[in-house]
Amino acid sequence: MIIGVPKEIKNNENRVALTPAGVAEFKKHGHTVYIQSTAGEGSGFKDEEYIKAGATLLPTIEEIYGIAEMIIKVKEPIASEYNLIKKDQLLFTYFHFASSEELTHAMIKQGAVCLAYETVEKTDRSLPLLVPMSEVAGRMAIQEGAKYLEKPLKGKGILLGGIPGVPPAKVLVLGGGIVGTQAAKMAAGLGARVVIMDVSLPRLRYLSDIMPQNVVTIMSNEYNIREAIREADLIVGAVLIPGAKAPHLITRDMLKTMRPGTVVVDVAVDQGGCIETCTPTTHENPTFIIDDVVHYCVANMPGAVPYTSTLGLTNATLPYAIQLANKGWKKACAENEELKKGLNVVDGKVVYKGVADAWNLTFESVETVL
């Protein structure tokens, strides 16, 4: 198969979808790999390393899309890429269709095969291609939140861990999945007082067992959330419903009950956000303020630490990408239930229910396209 890796062109997206080591693996299986020039530089990989691994460099994104049977990316295509995508071309990347109606309709129109990292799902319901970036985003949420609590950045002027004789900050984490767990660990490690909420009692029991003493678990419901946000200094939104829009756990009216300078970090913003007032921002302009509450809503947080993120992501995606290349997407998805669940839009049909529901589109069973 002919594999194409374009350079990411989303604002401040420095990750790359394939490392030189990944190129070598594809070559070992007899595939041809084209990399757009300088695609890996943001992550610390030089063109020479890709050439040495066996890739062919092409200077433009148009040439990459023009020649490849499978495009491997990190982030969803943006508007300038839509018309480059060919009918029946396989795109393997993060899509987050439920947060973008424009992207959904564009991929339907292009007739592409859209296999989304974020909905590849194991039998235990874990999301193997979302986990590494969720780990990065969860840890970064505290790193960034601590920074924006500083007074020059319009925060409360609170040091997350406090000092002897001065209490630490109060951190509220909504959601006890991968993002929430990592965020709570980081906040606790810095000495903050942490509350983590989830709707699953078994999950809360597990978290209560593994977390240090400065982390408290509380059942997530509207009453408890309204009470907790009044005291919180930093709030992390870490709720995910695979392939679907995140629910709004904090609504616009709740902001007025928070103290001025509170910081909210909505990691779920690429799935619509779990804080109603959050809209996607970029690393260039990461925050905005509503009702004296600082909102940090960067949709590609791991892009700020591209070396770590690229290695973490490609460790997870490469085995699946090799299967797709070796067998072709139809056979690979028919034989692997995990990959089958990654199919979202195929030949103009929406085959993932969460996406169809998000935009009131006709849902067709994935079996109709295999």
UniProtKB/TrEMBL annotation:
One Gene Ontology cellular component annotation held by this UniProt entry: plasma membrane
Record's catalysed reaction(s): L-alanine + NAD(+) + H2O = pyruvate + NH4(+) + NADH + H(+)
Pfam families membership: AlaDh_PNT_C, AlaDh_PNT_N
Binding sites annotated in the UniProt record for substrate: 15, 75
Source species taxonomy: Bacteria, Pseudomonadati, Bacteroidota, Cytophagia, Cytophagales
Residues in Alanine dehydrogenase/pyridine nucleotide transhydrogenase N-terminal domain copies: 4-137
Family in the record: Belongs to the AlaDH/PNT family.
Protein name, entry field: Alanine dehydrogenase
Gene Ontology biological process terms, A to Z: L-alanine catabolic process
Residue span(s) of domain Alanine dehydrogenase/pyridine nucleotide transhydrogenase NAD(H)-binding: 149-297
Keyword set includes Nucleotide-binding: yes
Molecular function in Gene Ontology: alanine dehydrogenase activity; nucleotide binding
Superkingdom field: Bacteria
Species name: Emticicia agri
